[in-house]
Design brief:
- The chain is of the alpha/beta class and about 400 residues long.
- The protein is built from 15 helices and 17 strands.
- The chain is about 40% helix and about 20% strand.
Length: about 400
């Protein structure tokens, strides 16, 4: 793979490219992502050509960007052949120069079959993998609909560690019948295997999932709010003590090892989203920030891209109020918080000092010495309320 690498501007939130591979071997019962199971083999060459078409379309909208991050998400991108990943990276590099320290992340299932492809992904240009471990015991993995065992997952983590300088894995907590002691032990075991980064998500029952059907039928019991909060507190306590504090509401890293791609989202940077059901936020040459989304159904997306030259089903301008609201919603997820001056630049208005003072008195937000506004540890569990109050 031949890539053009140049320096990135560290003072900017950055520009990223998100590539959505929508296929999975099976549909997990908790998952509400745009993922699809196909019995017949996927025509990777046809999808590759459609991705190339979409990338060319986005490059016409937003030329002369420097790509600081590429993220292959899904679905299960590790079902792609490494040569397809390499061809996609070459297509991205053909339209935009890549930063000299570009982060290229690929999400992967920790099965033995997919782990065998890790060296091929590295050779294709991937330099970071994110593994969907989700649980570290076989009983809970089966309940979550995962196809791998706990031993297989840890073997895949070991393979990732030997091949990639940077890797991360996900766990889901607040699972049915999970005690705080069991989660504490599991989390410590996970940190023993995590070099620099963990994504830790509280289980939520999402609409239109199998878990929602089971929950409504009384066949799935999830922790109540009090127990979920206790599990959250254990998460913050253990990760901080072990050197992987939260830098975002669900993400934990050693200093300097944060996911650069996700920081683009949370710092309200720009990103091109290609593939079925992908989203993007891009500024046109005229300076207008626009919200993009693509056709969700994979085969329909192919047809639309081949016929129209892109897969967009929405391409909407964001007014200043919308930009301000999105900036708050994303930026306040970060431990570093936001710079209120940027909110004013985006929205054309100032945050209400009285509202900030009231939230500060409740212990939910703080103003830092350098003028930033951030949510406290007590505020994160009620983040939606905090954002709504500030945006009002």
């Amino acid at each position: 793979m031949s890539l053009h690498l140049i320096g990135s501007n560290s003072g900017d939130p950055g520009f990223g490219v998100y590539v959505h591979w929508p296929f999975c071997l099976s549909k997990c019962p908790y998952c509400d992502f745009n993922s699809h199971v196909r019995q017949a083999p996927v025509d990777e060459n046809r999808f590759l050509q459609a991705f190339r078409t979409e990338l060319a379309h986005r490059a016409r909208i937003a030329p002369r960007r420097i790509v600081s991050s590429v993220f292959f998400g899904g679905g299960t991108p590790s079902l792609m052949q490494p040569r397809t990943v390499g061809a996609l990276l070459n297509a991205i590099a053909a339209h935009w120069p890549l930063a000299h320290d570009v982060e290229v992340t690929l999400e992967a299932n920790p099965t033995s079959v997919e782990a065998e492809r890790f060296r091929g992904y590295r050779d294709a240009g991937v330099n970071r993998v994110s593994l969907g471990v989700q649980a570290m015991n076989d009983t809970d993995l089966k309940a979550l609909g995962r196809l791998h065992t706990a031993d297989e997952a840890m073997q895949a983590v070991g393979i990732a560690q030997s091949i990639f300088e940077r890797y991360s894995f996900d766990l889901i907590y607040a699972r049915p019948f999970q005690s705080t002691d069991a989660w504490r032990a599991e989390l410590n075991a996970a940190i023993d295997r995590a070099a620099e980064h963990l994504s830790l998500y509280q289980l939520t029952v999402e609409p239109d999932t199998m878990f929602e059907k089971l929950h409504r039928a009384g066949k799935l019991k999830v922790p109540d709010a009090e127990h979920a909060r206790a599990l959250w507190d254990v998460t913050q306590e253990v990760t901080a003590a072990r050197g992987l504090p939260a830098y975002e509401i669900s993400n934990h890293a050693r200093p300097g090892a944060e996911s650069r791609h996700n920081l683009i989202y949370w710092r309200y940077g720009e990103y091109a989203g290609v593939g079925p059901g992908a989203h993007g936020r891009m500024r046109t040459q005229s300076g207008q920030r626009r919200a993009h989304s693509t056709e969700r159904h994979p085969e329909m997306w192919l047809t639309v891209v081949e016929g129209e030259g892109h897969g967009l089903i929405s391409d909407d301008p964001l007014d200043r109020d919308q930009q301000g609201d999105e900036f708050l919603l994303m930026g306040l997820r970060l431990r570093e918080g936001i710079d209120p001056r940027r909110f004013t630049e985006l929205s054309g208005k100032r945050l209400n000092d009285a509202t900030i003072d009231e939230l500060a008195e409740q212990g939910l937000v703080v103003r830092t010495r350098d003028g930033r506004l951030r949510v406290t540890q007590e505020g994160f569990p009620v983040l939606d309320m905090v954002v709504a109050e500030l945006a009002a």
